[in-house]
# Entry
Amino acid sequence: MQVDKRGRPPRDDGEVKNKQYRLRLSDSEESILDELSTEYGMPKAEILRRGLRMQHNLLRHTG
# Structure
């Protein structure tokens, strides 16, 4: 007997994103985030994740 699987399939890399943060932005910061999201065709959350990784890389290589 086969069981129906429901819900979103697991990610290939197995990374679970279960942490959430609330972020307050100014109007101009929100405008920048909107612009980047539209330009790159990415969700805003992914834009923020990439920015976080970029800052981390800068710290490792210059700090």
In short: Helices lie at 27-40, 44-62. Residues 54 and 60 are 10 Å apart (CA to CA).
